[in-house]
# Entry
Amino acid sequence: MAATTQNKPGMVLDEATLIRDDFEKHYWKNIGKRILKDWRLYVMLVPLLLVFLFWRYMPMYELITAFKNSDTTVGVMERDFVGFQHFYNLMFGDASTGFWQAFRNTFVLSFYGLLFGFPMPIIIALFFNEIRSNALRSTLQVAVYLPKFVSLVVITSLTSMLLSGGSTLTGAQPGIVARALMSIGMVPQADAWVGMMSNPGYFRTIYQVTGIWETAGYGSIVYFAAIISISPTSYEAARIDGATKMAQIKHVVLPGILSTITIMLILEVGKLLTVGYEKVLLLYSTDVYSTADVVSTYVFRLAGIEAGAETNQSMGSAADLMNAVVSMLLVVGANTISRKASDTSLY
Amino acid sequence: MKGLSKSEAIFKVVAHTFLIIFALMCLYPFVYAVSAALSGRTAFYTGKVVLFPVDFQLDAFLTIVKTKRFWVSYANTLFVTFYGTIWALVLAIMGAYALSKKRLVFRRAFNFYLVFTMWFSAGLIPQFLNYKATQSIFETVGIMDDKWLVVIAMGMAAYNVVLLRNAFEGVPSEIEEAAIVDGAKEFQLLTKVYVPMSKSAVATVALFFGISRWNGYFWARTMIRNRNEWPLQVYIRDQLEEIAAAEYEATTTYAPNSLIYAMIVCAIIPIIIIYPYIQKYFAAGVNMGGVKE
# Structure
Protein backbone atom coordinates (compact mmCIF):
# COMPACT_ATOMS: atom_id res chain seq x y z
CA MET A 1 0.00 0.00 0.00
CA ALA A 2 2.66 2.41 1.10
CA ALA A 3 4.73 1.44 -1.94
CA THR A 4 1.86 2.19 -4.32
CA THR A 5 1.30 5.57 -2.84
CA GLN A 6 4.98 6.36 -3.20
CA ASN A 7 5.19 5.17 -6.79
CA LYS A 8 2.12 6.87 -8.15
CA PRO A 9 1.20 9.65 -5.82
CA GLY A 10 -0.53 11.56 -8.61
CA MET A 11 -2.92 8.80 -9.42
CA VAL A 12 -3.95 8.15 -5.88
CA LEU A 13 -4.56 11.81 -5.37
CA ASP A 14 -6.64 12.00 -8.51
CA GLU A 15 -8.83 9.13 -7.44
CA ALA A 16 -9.40 10.67 -4.06
CA THR A 17 -10.22 13.98 -5.65
CA LEU A 18 -12.61 12.35 -8.08
CA ILE A 19 -14.43 10.55 -5.33
CA ARG A 20 -14.60 13.69 -3.23
CA ASP A 21 -15.78 15.82 -6.14
CA ASP A 22 -18.44 13.29 -6.97
CA PHE A 23 -19.56 13.18 -3.38
CA GLU A 24 -19.66 16.94 -3.09
CA LYS A 25 -21.59 17.33 -6.31
CA HIS A 26 -24.03 14.78 -5.06
CA TYR A 27 -24.05 16.41 -1.63
CA TRP A 28 -24.99 19.83 -2.90
CA LYS A 29 -27.20 18.66 -5.74
CA ASN A 30 -29.95 17.05 -3.73
CA ILE A 31 -29.56 19.09 -0.62
CA GLY A 32 -32.90 20.85 -0.79
CA LYS A 33 -34.68 17.62 -1.44
CA ARG A 34 -32.95 15.87 1.41
CA ILE A 35 -33.71 18.64 3.86
CA LEU A 36 -37.36 18.61 2.81
CA LYS A 37 -37.54 14.86 3.13
CA ASP A 38 -36.20 15.00 6.68
CA TRP A 39 -38.12 18.10 7.73
CA ARG A 40 -39.23 16.37 10.94
CA LEU A 41 -35.63 16.07 12.08
CA TYR A 42 -35.14 19.81 11.65
CA VAL A 43 -38.30 20.62 13.53
CA MET A 44 -36.90 18.57 16.41
CA LEU A 45 -33.47 20.18 16.22
CA VAL A 46 -34.44 23.83 15.86
CA PRO A 47 -35.61 24.50 19.46
CA LEU A 48 -32.27 23.30 20.82
CA LEU A 49 -30.34 25.40 18.29
CA LEU A 50 -32.40 28.43 19.28
CA VAL A 51 -31.69 27.97 22.99
CA PHE A 52 -27.99 27.91 22.21
CA LEU A 53 -28.35 30.90 19.91
CA PHE A 54 -30.21 33.06 22.42
CA TRP A 55 -28.33 32.21 25.60
CA ARG A 56 -24.91 31.00 24.48
CA TYR A 57 -24.14 32.84 21.24
CA MET A 58 -25.94 36.12 21.87
CA PRO A 59 -23.78 36.73 24.97
CA MET A 60 -20.76 36.45 22.71
CA TYR A 61 -22.21 39.34 20.76
CA GLU A 62 -22.51 41.27 24.03
CA LEU A 63 -18.71 41.09 24.25
CA ILE A 64 -18.81 44.07 21.92
CA THR A 65 -19.40 46.21 25.03
CA ALA A 66 -15.69 45.69 25.70
CA PHE A 67 -14.90 47.93 22.74
CA LYS A 68 -17.54 50.59 23.37
CA ASN A 69 -17.64 53.43 25.87
CA SER A 70 -19.05 52.62 29.26
CA ASP A 71 -22.00 55.00 29.22
CA THR A 72 -24.79 52.78 30.55
CA THR A 73 -27.51 55.40 30.06
CA VAL A 74 -27.84 54.43 26.40
CA GLY A 75 -28.07 51.03 24.75
CA VAL A 76 -24.99 49.15 23.65
CA MET A 77 -25.69 49.93 20.01
CA GLU A 78 -25.66 53.71 20.49
CA ARG A 79 -22.37 53.81 22.38
CA ASP A 80 -19.22 54.90 20.56
CA PHE A 81 -16.40 52.56 19.78
CA VAL A 82 -13.36 53.25 21.92
CA GLY A 83 -11.08 50.52 20.59
CA PHE A 84 -8.86 48.85 23.13
CA GLN A 85 -9.15 51.58 25.77
CA HIS A 86 -10.76 49.31 28.38
CA PHE A 87 -8.16 46.63 27.87
CA TYR A 88 -5.49 49.26 28.34
CA ASN A 89 -7.11 50.55 31.56
CA LEU A 90 -7.43 47.07 32.88
CA MET A 91 -3.80 46.22 32.29
CA PHE A 92 -2.09 49.55 32.95
CA GLY A 93 -4.66 51.98 34.34
CA ASP A 94 -6.53 52.51 37.61
CA ALA A 95 -7.99 49.04 37.67
CA SER A 96 -4.69 47.32 36.98
CA THR A 97 -3.57 46.63 40.58
CA GLY A 98 -6.71 44.68 41.35
CA PHE A 99 -6.70 43.07 37.94
CA TRP A 100 -3.16 41.72 38.15
CA GLN A 101 -3.73 40.51 41.69
CA ALA A 102 -6.84 38.67 40.51
CA PHE A 103 -4.98 37.39 37.48
CA ARG A 104 -2.18 36.01 39.65
CA ASN A 105 -4.63 34.43 42.07
CA THR A 106 -6.50 32.82 39.19
CA PHE A 107 -3.32 31.21 37.96
CA VAL A 108 -2.14 30.14 41.40
CA LEU A 109 -5.51 28.60 42.27
CA SER A 110 -5.77 26.72 38.99
CA PHE A 111 -2.13 25.69 39.02
CA TYR A 112 -2.44 24.20 42.50
CA GLY A 113 -5.74 22.68 41.46
CA LEU A 114 -3.95 20.96 38.59
CA LEU A 115 -1.01 19.95 40.75
CA PHE A 116 -2.97 18.48 43.68
CA GLY A 117 -6.49 18.07 42.39
CA PHE A 118 -5.70 16.39 39.10
CA PRO A 119 -3.78 13.31 40.38
CA MET A 120 -6.19 12.59 43.23
CA PRO A 121 -8.97 10.92 41.20
CA ILE A 122 -6.34 8.77 39.48
CA ILE A 123 -4.92 7.65 42.83
CA ILE A 124 -8.40 6.94 44.17
CA ALA A 125 -9.23 4.89 41.07
CA LEU A 126 -6.00 2.89 41.51
CA PHE A 127 -6.95 2.25 45.11
CA PHE A 128 -10.50 1.20 44.23
CA ASN A 129 -9.02 -1.33 41.85
CA GLU A 130 -7.35 -2.98 44.85
CA ILE A 131 -10.63 -3.68 46.61
CA ARG A 132 -11.80 -7.15 45.61
CA SER A 133 -15.00 -7.17 47.65
CA ASN A 134 -17.75 -5.70 45.47
CA ALA A 135 -19.92 -4.84 48.45
CA LEU A 136 -17.17 -2.87 50.19
CA ARG A 137 -16.16 -1.12 47.00
CA SER A 138 -19.70 -0.04 46.11
CA THR A 139 -20.29 1.19 49.64
CA LEU A 140 -17.13 3.29 49.58
CA GLN A 141 -17.97 4.57 46.11
CA VAL A 142 -21.41 5.69 47.24
CA ALA A 143 -19.74 7.63 50.06
CA VAL A 144 -17.02 9.33 48.02
CA TYR A 145 -19.27 10.38 45.13
CA LEU A 146 -21.75 12.00 47.49
CA PRO A 147 -20.15 15.45 47.96
CA LYS A 148 -20.35 16.02 44.20
CA PHE A 149 -24.14 16.01 44.38
CA VAL A 150 -24.41 18.48 47.20
CA SER A 151 -24.75 22.13 46.27
CA LEU A 152 -21.91 24.61 46.48
CA VAL A 153 -23.95 26.69 48.88
CA VAL A 154 -24.19 23.77 51.28
CA ILE A 155 -20.51 22.92 50.90
CA THR A 156 -19.33 26.46 51.44
CA SER A 157 -21.73 27.01 54.34
CA LEU A 158 -20.44 23.84 55.99
CA THR A 159 -16.86 24.90 55.31
CA SER A 160 -17.29 28.28 56.89
CA MET A 161 -19.06 26.86 59.94
CA LEU A 162 -16.67 23.95 60.45
CA LEU A 163 -13.71 26.34 60.24
CA SER A 164 -15.31 29.25 62.05
CA GLY A 165 -13.50 31.13 64.78
CA GLY A 166 -14.45 31.15 68.43
CA SER A 167 -16.10 33.94 70.36
CA THR A 168 -15.48 35.11 73.91
CA LEU A 169 -18.87 36.82 73.91
CA THR A 170 -20.93 33.68 73.43
CA GLY A 171 -18.31 31.31 74.78
CA ALA A 172 -18.38 29.52 71.43
CA GLN A 173 -15.45 27.29 70.60
CA PRO A 174 -14.01 27.42 67.09
CA GLY A 175 -15.63 25.12 64.50
CA ILE A 176 -15.01 21.43 64.95
CA VAL A 177 -12.58 21.02 62.07
CA ALA A 178 -10.65 24.12 63.16
CA ARG A 179 -10.37 22.59 66.64
CA ALA A 180 -9.22 19.25 65.22
CA LEU A 181 -6.54 20.98 63.15
CA MET A 182 -5.57 23.02 66.20
CA SER A 183 -5.22 19.96 68.40
CA ILE A 184 -2.93 18.17 65.97
CA GLY A 185 -0.90 21.34 65.66
CA MET A 186 -1.58 22.13 62.02
CA VAL A 187 -3.15 25.48 62.82
CA PRO A 188 -1.94 27.82 65.58
CA GLN A 189 -4.48 28.38 68.32
CA ALA A 190 -4.64 32.12 67.67
CA ASP A 191 -5.55 31.58 64.00
CA ALA A 192 -8.24 29.06 64.83
CA TRP A 193 -9.83 31.47 67.30
CA VAL A 194 -9.82 34.40 64.91
CA GLY A 195 -11.27 32.20 62.19
CA MET A 196 -9.49 30.60 59.27
CA MET A 197 -11.95 31.93 56.72
CA SER A 198 -10.86 35.51 57.28
CA ASN A 199 -7.16 34.73 57.10
CA PRO A 200 -5.71 35.18 53.59
CA GLY A 201 -2.97 32.67 54.42
CA TYR A 202 -5.44 29.80 54.50
CA PHE A 203 -7.70 30.57 51.60
CA ARG A 204 -5.83 28.65 48.91
CA THR A 205 -5.51 25.54 51.07
CA ILE A 206 -9.18 25.66 52.01
CA TYR A 207 -10.13 26.09 48.38
CA GLN A 208 -8.02 23.13 47.22
CA VAL A 209 -8.89 20.77 50.06
CA THR A 210 -12.63 21.36 49.75
CA GLY A 211 -12.24 21.02 45.98
CA ILE A 212 -10.57 17.63 46.35
CA TRP A 213 -13.12 16.59 48.95
CA GLU A 214 -15.91 17.57 46.61
CA THR A 215 -14.76 16.18 43.27
CA ALA A 216 -11.96 13.63 43.66
CA GLY A 217 -14.25 10.68 44.40
CA TYR A 218 -16.59 11.43 41.54
CA GLY A 219 -13.67 12.16 39.23
CA SER A 220 -12.30 8.67 39.83
CA ILE A 221 -15.23 7.08 37.94
CA VAL A 222 -13.78 7.70 34.53
CA TYR A 223 -10.30 6.42 35.49
CA PHE A 224 -11.69 3.40 37.29
CA ALA A 225 -13.60 2.42 34.15
CA ALA A 226 -10.37 2.73 32.16
CA ILE A 227 -8.40 0.65 34.68
CA ILE A 228 -10.85 -2.23 34.79
CA SER A 229 -10.81 -2.44 31.00
CA ILE A 230 -7.07 -3.26 31.03
CA SER A 231 -6.69 -6.93 30.23
CA PRO A 232 -5.77 -9.08 33.27
CA THR A 233 -3.18 -10.93 31.20
CA SER A 234 -0.95 -7.84 31.12
CA TYR A 235 -0.87 -7.84 34.92
CA GLU A 236 -0.11 -11.54 34.97
CA ALA A 237 2.78 -11.09 32.57
CA ALA A 238 4.23 -8.32 34.72
CA ARG A 239 3.75 -10.36 37.89
CA ILE A 240 5.47 -13.39 36.43
CA ASP A 241 8.39 -11.12 35.58
CA GLY A 242 8.50 -10.30 39.29
CA ALA A 243 7.50 -6.66 38.92
CA THR A 244 6.74 -4.85 42.18
CA LYS A 245 3.37 -3.15 42.58
CA MET A 246 4.88 0.23 41.73
CA ALA A 247 6.47 -1.22 38.60
CA GLN A 248 3.15 -2.78 37.60
CA ILE A 249 1.42 0.56 37.99
CA LYS A 250 4.14 2.33 36.05
CA HIS A 251 4.39 -0.15 33.18
CA VAL A 252 0.91 -1.63 32.94
CA VAL A 253 -1.74 0.57 34.50
CA LEU A 254 -0.57 4.08 33.64
CA PRO A 255 0.10 3.27 29.95
CA GLY A 256 -3.32 1.61 29.88
CA ILE A 257 -5.13 4.74 31.05
CA LEU A 258 -2.84 7.30 29.44
CA SER A 259 -5.33 8.37 26.80
CA THR A 260 -8.01 8.98 29.46
CA ILE A 261 -5.53 10.99 31.50
CA THR A 262 -4.57 13.03 28.46
CA ILE A 263 -8.17 13.85 27.57
CA MET A 264 -8.97 14.86 31.13
CA LEU A 265 -5.81 16.96 31.30
CA ILE A 266 -6.70 18.87 28.15
CA LEU A 267 -10.16 19.53 29.58
CA GLU A 268 -8.62 20.77 32.82
CA VAL A 269 -6.17 23.04 31.03
CA GLY A 270 -9.10 24.61 29.23
CA LYS A 271 -10.66 25.45 32.56
CA LEU A 272 -7.47 27.03 33.95
CA LEU A 273 -8.78 30.56 33.73
CA THR A 274 -12.37 29.84 34.58
CA VAL A 275 -11.70 28.70 38.16
CA GLY A 276 -15.00 28.17 39.87
CA TYR A 277 -15.98 31.77 40.47
CA GLU A 278 -19.17 30.64 42.14
CA LYS A 279 -17.23 28.84 44.83
CA VAL A 280 -14.81 31.74 45.31
CA LEU A 281 -17.74 34.15 45.61
CA LEU A 282 -19.30 31.96 48.26
CA LEU A 283 -16.08 31.46 50.20
CA TYR A 284 -14.29 34.76 50.11
CA SER A 285 -14.68 37.98 52.03
CA THR A 286 -13.04 41.39 51.92
CA ASP A 287 -10.38 40.14 54.34
CA VAL A 288 -8.99 37.59 51.93
CA TYR A 289 -9.11 39.40 48.56
CA SER A 290 -5.32 39.36 48.43
CA THR A 291 -5.25 35.59 47.85
CA ALA A 292 -8.86 34.83 46.92
CA ASP A 293 -9.94 37.37 44.35
CA VAL A 294 -9.95 35.82 40.86
CA VAL A 295 -10.58 37.51 37.52
CA SER A 296 -14.25 36.51 37.42
CA THR A 297 -14.98 37.77 40.91
CA TYR A 298 -13.00 40.95 40.25
CA VAL A 299 -15.05 41.50 37.10
CA PHE A 300 -18.19 40.77 39.08
CA ARG A 301 -17.43 43.57 41.53
CA LEU A 302 -16.02 45.89 38.90
CA ALA A 303 -19.26 45.70 36.96
CA GLY A 304 -21.18 46.28 40.16
CA ILE A 305 -23.63 43.47 39.48
CA GLU A 306 -23.95 42.85 43.19
CA ALA A 307 -24.76 46.44 43.96
CA GLY A 308 -27.14 46.56 41.04
CA ALA A 309 -25.44 49.65 39.67
CA GLU A 310 -23.80 47.97 36.68
CA THR A 311 -21.11 50.60 36.65
CA ASN A 312 -18.41 49.22 34.49
CA GLN A 313 -19.73 46.64 32.12
CA SER A 314 -17.20 47.55 29.47
CA MET A 315 -14.14 46.83 31.54
CA GLY A 316 -15.77 43.68 32.85
CA SER A 317 -16.50 42.51 29.32
CA ALA A 318 -12.91 43.29 28.35
CA ALA A 319 -11.61 41.06 31.14
CA ASP A 320 -14.12 38.35 30.20
CA LEU A 321 -13.04 38.48 26.59
CA MET A 322 -9.37 38.12 27.53
CA ASN A 323 -10.28 35.22 29.78
CA ALA A 324 -12.30 33.44 27.13
CA VAL A 325 -9.69 33.88 24.40
CA VAL A 326 -6.80 32.69 26.58
CA SER A 327 -8.86 29.66 27.76
CA MET A 328 -9.66 28.78 24.18
CA LEU A 329 -6.00 29.10 23.15
CA LEU A 330 -5.00 26.87 26.07
CA VAL A 331 -7.39 24.11 24.99
CA VAL A 332 -6.35 24.32 21.35
CA GLY A 333 -2.68 24.44 22.36
CA ALA A 334 -2.90 21.51 24.75
CA ASN A 335 -4.85 19.54 22.20
CA THR A 336 -2.34 20.22 19.42
CA ILE A 337 0.62 19.27 21.59
CA SER A 338 -1.14 16.11 22.71
CA ARG A 339 -2.11 15.13 19.17
CA LYS A 340 1.48 15.55 17.97
CA ALA A 341 2.99 13.76 20.94
CA SER A 342 0.59 10.92 21.56
CA ASP A 343 -2.15 10.80 18.92
CA THR A 344 -4.70 11.51 21.63
CA SER A 345 -6.89 14.50 21.08
CA LEU A 346 -10.29 15.85 21.87
CA TYR A 347 -11.22 16.59 18.29
CA MET B 1 -3.80 -12.10 50.70
CA LYS B 2 -2.57 -15.36 49.31
CA GLY B 3 -0.23 -15.21 46.35
CA LEU B 4 0.54 -11.53 46.73
CA SER B 5 4.07 -10.23 46.73
CA LYS B 6 5.12 -8.02 49.61
CA SER B 7 4.75 -4.78 47.65
CA GLU B 8 1.32 -5.82 46.42
CA ALA B 9 0.16 -6.62 49.93
CA ILE B 10 1.40 -3.28 51.25
CA PHE B 11 -0.34 -1.45 48.41
CA LYS B 12 -3.59 -3.26 49.15
CA VAL B 13 -3.45 -2.28 52.80
CA VAL B 14 -2.65 1.34 51.97
CA ALA B 15 -5.50 1.42 49.42
CA HIS B 16 -8.06 0.07 51.88
CA THR B 17 -6.95 2.37 54.70
CA PHE B 18 -6.89 5.45 52.51
CA LEU B 19 -10.28 4.84 50.93
CA ILE B 20 -12.00 4.05 54.20
CA ILE B 21 -10.64 7.22 55.78
CA PHE B 22 -11.51 9.27 52.72
CA ALA B 23 -15.04 7.85 52.63
CA LEU B 24 -15.52 8.69 56.31
CA MET B 25 -14.26 12.21 55.64
CA CYS B 26 -16.78 12.55 52.84
CA LEU B 27 -19.63 11.56 55.12
CA TYR B 28 -18.55 13.23 58.34
CA PRO B 29 -19.67 16.84 57.62
CA PHE B 30 -23.20 15.62 56.90
CA VAL B 31 -23.37 13.48 60.03
CA TYR B 32 -22.04 16.40 62.02
CA ALA B 33 -24.62 18.72 60.46
CA VAL B 34 -27.46 16.47 61.66
CA SER B 35 -25.99 16.23 65.16
CA ALA B 36 -25.28 19.95 65.39
CA ALA B 37 -28.83 20.71 64.33
CA LEU B 38 -30.15 18.49 67.11
CA SER B 39 -27.78 19.59 69.90
CA GLY B 40 -28.41 22.03 72.70
CA ARG B 41 -27.00 25.53 72.76
CA THR B 42 -24.39 25.13 75.48
CA ALA B 43 -23.26 21.73 74.31
CA PHE B 44 -22.75 23.14 70.83
CA TYR B 45 -20.90 26.25 72.02
CA THR B 46 -18.58 24.39 74.34
CA GLY B 47 -17.66 21.98 71.57
CA LYS B 48 -19.10 18.83 73.10
CA VAL B 49 -20.78 17.86 69.84
CA VAL B 50 -18.40 15.65 67.89
CA LEU B 51 -20.39 12.86 66.32
CA PHE B 52 -23.72 12.41 68.08
CA PRO B 53 -26.22 15.01 69.31
CA VAL B 54 -25.63 16.26 72.87
CA ASP B 55 -28.52 17.76 74.92
CA PHE B 56 -31.01 16.72 72.30
CA GLN B 57 -33.49 19.37 71.13
CA LEU B 58 -35.80 19.60 68.14
CA ASP B 59 -36.42 23.33 68.35
CA ALA B 60 -34.00 24.25 65.58
CA PHE B 61 -35.77 21.94 63.13
CA LEU B 62 -39.19 23.06 64.38
CA THR B 63 -38.22 26.71 63.90
CA ILE B 64 -37.20 25.98 60.32
CA VAL B 65 -40.34 23.96 59.68
CA LYS B 66 -42.45 26.86 60.95
CA THR B 67 -40.64 29.46 58.84
CA LYS B 68 -42.87 30.34 55.92
CA ARG B 69 -40.07 31.75 53.79
CA PHE B 70 -38.17 28.48 54.06
CA TRP B 71 -41.09 26.57 52.53
CA VAL B 72 -41.65 29.23 49.91
CA SER B 73 -38.05 28.86 48.80
CA TYR B 74 -38.34 25.10 48.94
CA ALA B 75 -41.37 25.26 46.66
CA ASN B 76 -39.46 27.59 44.32
CA THR B 77 -36.62 25.10 44.09
CA LEU B 78 -39.07 22.29 43.34
CA PHE B 79 -40.66 24.48 40.66
CA VAL B 80 -37.33 25.33 39.02
CA THR B 81 -36.08 21.75 39.26
CA PHE B 82 -39.27 20.22 37.87
CA TYR B 83 -39.94 22.54 34.95
CA GLY B 84 -36.25 23.21 34.31
CA THR B 85 -35.45 19.53 34.00
CA ILE B 86 -38.41 18.81 31.73
CA TRP B 87 -37.69 21.78 29.49
CA ALA B 88 -33.98 21.02 29.10
CA LEU B 89 -34.50 17.28 28.79
CA VAL B 90 -37.16 17.49 26.07
CA LEU B 91 -35.09 19.90 23.98
CA ALA B 92 -31.92 17.86 24.48
CA ILE B 93 -33.61 14.56 23.56
CA MET B 94 -35.16 15.92 20.39
CA GLY B 95 -31.98 17.69 19.34
CA ALA B 96 -29.75 14.75 20.15
CA TYR B 97 -32.02 12.46 18.16
CA ALA B 98 -31.73 14.63 15.08
CA LEU B 99 -27.96 14.94 15.53
CA SER B 100 -27.58 11.19 15.84
CA LYS B 101 -28.84 10.69 12.27
CA LYS B 102 -26.05 10.36 9.71
CA ARG B 103 -28.42 11.55 6.99
CA LEU B 104 -28.99 14.90 8.65
CA VAL B 105 -27.67 17.56 6.28
CA PHE B 106 -25.08 19.88 7.91
CA ARG B 107 -24.76 17.41 10.78
CA ARG B 108 -21.09 18.24 11.40
CA ALA B 109 -21.80 21.96 11.42
CA PHE B 110 -24.62 21.54 13.94
CA ASN B 111 -22.41 19.41 16.15
CA PHE B 112 -19.67 21.97 16.04
CA TYR B 113 -22.20 24.68 16.87
CA LEU B 114 -23.05 22.89 20.12
CA VAL B 115 -19.58 21.71 21.11
CA PHE B 116 -18.01 25.11 20.49
CA THR B 117 -19.93 26.46 23.49
CA MET B 118 -18.01 24.02 25.67
CA TRP B 119 -14.69 25.63 24.70
CA PHE B 120 -15.67 29.23 24.41
CA SER B 121 -18.08 31.00 26.67
CA ALA B 122 -18.55 34.72 26.66
CA GLY B 123 -18.10 35.14 30.40
CA LEU B 124 -19.86 36.68 33.32
CA ILE B 125 -20.69 40.20 32.20
CA PRO B 126 -21.87 39.42 28.65
CA GLN B 127 -23.97 36.57 30.03
CA PHE B 128 -25.40 38.91 32.64
CA LEU B 129 -26.28 41.55 30.03
CA ASN B 130 -27.87 38.83 27.93
CA TYR B 131 -30.03 37.57 30.79
CA LYS B 132 -30.98 41.16 31.58
CA ALA B 133 -32.16 41.65 28.02
CA THR B 134 -34.05 38.36 28.16
CA GLN B 135 -35.64 39.43 31.40
CA SER B 136 -36.99 42.63 29.90
CA ILE B 137 -38.29 40.74 26.85
CA PHE B 138 -40.03 38.28 29.18
CA GLU B 139 -41.55 41.21 31.01
CA THR B 140 -42.95 42.77 27.86
CA VAL B 141 -44.65 39.50 26.97
CA GLY B 142 -46.06 39.31 30.49
CA ILE B 143 -43.82 36.76 32.20
CA MET B 144 -43.12 38.64 35.44
CA ASP B 145 -41.92 35.68 37.47
CA ASP B 146 -38.12 35.47 37.22
CA LYS B 147 -38.27 31.75 37.94
CA TRP B 148 -39.31 31.24 34.32
CA LEU B 149 -36.17 33.03 33.23
CA VAL B 150 -34.13 30.53 35.25
CA VAL B 151 -36.14 27.62 33.83
CA ILE B 152 -36.04 28.61 30.18
CA ALA B 153 -32.83 30.53 29.64
CA MET B 154 -30.42 28.69 31.91
CA GLY B 155 -29.19 25.19 32.43
CA MET B 156 -28.80 23.82 28.89
CA ALA B 157 -25.48 21.99 28.58
CA ALA B 158 -23.83 20.84 25.36
CA TYR B 159 -22.17 17.99 27.23
CA ASN B 160 -25.54 16.41 28.04
CA VAL B 161 -26.66 16.66 24.43
CA VAL B 162 -23.45 14.94 23.29
CA LEU B 163 -24.04 12.21 25.85
CA LEU B 164 -27.57 11.56 24.58
CA ARG B 165 -26.48 11.73 20.95
CA ASN B 166 -23.81 9.06 21.57
CA ALA B 167 -26.42 6.84 23.21
CA PHE B 168 -28.88 7.25 20.31
CA GLU B 169 -26.10 6.47 17.83
CA GLY B 170 -25.64 3.18 19.64
CA VAL B 171 -29.19 2.01 18.90
CA PRO B 172 -28.94 -0.67 16.16
CA SER B 173 -30.24 0.61 12.83
CA GLU B 174 -32.13 -2.67 12.13
CA ILE B 175 -34.57 -1.78 14.88
CA GLU B 176 -35.18 1.59 13.32
CA GLU B 177 -35.72 0.03 9.90
CA ALA B 178 -38.19 -2.46 11.31
CA ALA B 179 -40.14 0.34 12.96
CA ILE B 180 -40.14 2.37 9.74
CA VAL B 181 -41.58 -0.61 7.86
CA ASP B 182 -44.33 -0.65 10.47
CA GLY B 183 -45.07 2.91 9.46
CA ALA B 184 -43.60 4.79 12.40
CA LYS B 185 -42.72 8.46 11.87
CA GLU B 186 -39.75 10.22 13.45
CA PHE B 187 -41.58 11.25 16.57
CA GLN B 188 -43.00 7.79 17.28
CA LEU B 189 -39.57 6.32 16.54
CA LEU B 190 -38.04 8.56 19.15
CA THR B 191 -40.59 8.01 21.88
CA LYS B 192 -41.35 4.32 21.19
CA VAL B 193 -37.90 3.05 20.19
CA TYR B 194 -34.99 5.34 20.94
CA VAL B 195 -35.87 6.66 24.37
CA PRO B 196 -36.88 3.24 25.79
CA MET B 197 -33.73 1.71 24.33
CA SER B 198 -31.49 4.40 25.84
CA LYS B 199 -33.16 4.47 29.21
CA SER B 200 -30.00 4.71 31.26
CA ALA B 201 -28.58 7.57 29.18
CA VAL B 202 -31.86 9.47 29.39
CA ALA B 203 -32.02 8.87 33.14
CA THR B 204 -28.45 10.04 33.57
CA VAL B 205 -29.00 13.23 31.63
CA ALA B 206 -32.27 13.87 33.46
CA LEU B 207 -30.38 13.55 36.72
CA PHE B 208 -27.55 15.82 35.55
CA PHE B 209 -30.12 18.47 34.68
CA GLY B 210 -32.11 17.85 37.86
CA ILE B 211 -29.16 18.03 40.22
CA SER B 212 -27.77 21.17 38.64
CA ARG B 213 -31.21 22.80 38.89
CA TRP B 214 -31.63 21.77 42.50
CA ASN B 215 -28.17 23.08 43.38
CA GLY B 216 -28.09 26.19 41.19
CA TYR B 217 -27.17 29.36 43.01
CA PHE B 218 -25.30 32.12 41.23
CA TRP B 219 -27.62 33.09 38.38
CA ALA B 220 -30.71 32.61 40.49
CA ARG B 221 -29.16 34.96 43.04
CA THR B 222 -28.21 37.47 40.38
CA MET B 223 -31.35 37.44 38.26
CA ILE B 224 -34.27 36.79 40.61
CA ARG B 225 -35.27 40.17 42.02
CA ASN B 226 -38.21 39.23 44.18
CA ARG B 227 -37.14 37.54 47.41
CA ASN B 228 -40.30 35.45 47.43
CA GLU B 229 -39.14 33.76 44.26
CA TRP B 230 -35.73 32.81 45.59
CA PRO B 231 -34.85 29.13 45.47
CA LEU B 232 -33.63 27.29 48.55
CA GLN B 233 -29.89 27.70 47.90
CA VAL B 234 -30.18 31.47 47.68
CA TYR B 235 -32.30 31.53 50.82
CA ILE B 236 -29.82 29.40 52.81
CA ARG B 237 -26.92 31.60 51.78
CA ASP B 238 -28.88 34.70 52.72
CA GLN B 239 -29.74 33.24 56.12
CA LEU B 240 -26.11 32.27 56.73
CA GLU B 241 -25.06 35.88 56.19
CA GLU B 242 -27.93 37.19 58.31
CA ILE B 243 -27.16 34.93 61.26
CA ALA B 244 -23.45 35.74 61.08
CA ALA B 245 -24.30 39.42 61.32
CA ALA B 246 -27.04 39.02 63.97
CA GLU B 247 -26.70 40.27 67.52
CA TYR B 248 -26.07 37.72 70.23
CA GLU B 249 -29.23 36.67 72.05
CA ALA B 250 -29.37 33.79 74.54
CA THR B 251 -33.08 33.09 74.37
CA THR B 252 -33.18 29.89 72.36
CA THR B 253 -32.36 26.31 73.32
CA TYR B 254 -30.16 25.98 70.27
CA ALA B 255 -27.20 27.95 68.93
CA PRO B 256 -27.87 30.14 65.84
CA ASN B 257 -25.61 27.90 63.77
CA SER B 258 -27.90 24.95 64.52
CA LEU B 259 -30.57 26.72 62.47
CA ILE B 260 -28.27 26.76 59.45
CA TYR B 261 -27.34 23.13 60.03
CA ALA B 262 -31.04 22.25 60.20
CA MET B 263 -31.66 24.11 56.94
CA ILE B 264 -28.75 22.34 55.27
CA VAL B 265 -30.07 18.98 56.39
CA CYS B 266 -33.51 19.80 55.00
CA ALA B 267 -31.93 20.92 51.74
CA ILE B 268 -29.96 17.73 51.16
CA ILE B 269 -32.53 15.21 52.38
CA PRO B 270 -34.13 14.79 48.92
CA ILE B 271 -30.71 14.24 47.39
CA ILE B 272 -29.72 11.72 50.04
CA ILE B 273 -33.00 9.84 49.55
CA ILE B 274 -32.76 9.43 45.79
CA TYR B 275 -28.97 9.22 45.68
CA PRO B 276 -28.48 5.48 46.34
CA TYR B 277 -30.89 4.68 43.50
CA ILE B 278 -29.35 7.03 41.01
CA GLN B 279 -25.63 6.85 41.61
CA LYS B 280 -25.16 3.80 39.39
CA TYR B 281 -26.47 5.80 36.43
CA PHE B 282 -23.82 8.41 36.94
CA ALA B 283 -21.00 5.94 36.66
CA ALA B 284 -22.55 4.69 33.42
CA GLY B 285 -23.28 8.20 32.19
CA VAL B 286 -19.81 9.59 32.73
CA ASN B 287 -18.30 6.74 30.75
CA MET B 288 -20.73 7.10 27.87
CA GLY B 289 -19.92 10.73 27.37
CA GLY B 290 -16.62 10.20 25.59
CA VAL B 291 -16.45 13.84 24.58
CA LYS B 292 -15.82 13.66 20.87
CA GLU B 293 -17.07 16.32 18.54
Summary: The two ends of chain A are 27 Å apart (CA to CA).
